[in-house]
Design brief:
Shape: elongated
Radius of gyration: 17 Å
Helix content: 25-40%
Number of helices: 2
Oligomer: single chain
Order of helices and strands: EEHHEE
Strand order of the largest sheet: 1-3-4-2
Distance between the termini: 17 Å
Number of strands: 4
Length: 104
């Protein structure tokens, strides 16, 4: 499966199949939240949250690809990510794009 953030793939003619998406809501456990809140006092990267968001993007992407595969897609173009806080310490991550099939 080809995944790109452009609306084209060089050398390929594309047939649009439709929008596909994948999402997840992730949170860290209370122990990580307490540790990360102390980190905000001194500054620096909140590595636990960076890891959480990387995992969430990977899962959302995987779910988007699964949806594209169900449509018989060869690729997903114009891929974008969005995130939103749903509560303290929890975030939704969505991956979305256009499923396409390569024309012969």
């Amino acid at each position: 499966m080809v995944i790109v953030n452009t609306d084209y793939i060089s050398g390929k003619e594309l047939e649009m199949l439709g929008m596909v998406k994948g999402s997840t809501i992730q949170s860290k456990n209370l122990g990580h939240d307490i540790g990360q809140s102390f980190k905000t006092l001194v500054g620096g990267e909140l590595k636990s949250y960076t890891e959480m968001m990387n995992d969430a993007r990977a899962l959302a992407t995987r779910r988007m690809v699964e949806e594209a595969e169900k449509l018989g897609a060869d690729a997903v173009v114009n891929v974008r990510f969005a995130s939103a806080s749903v509560m303290a310490g929890a975030a939704e991550v969505m991956a979305y794009g256009t499923a396409v099939k390569f024309k012969s």
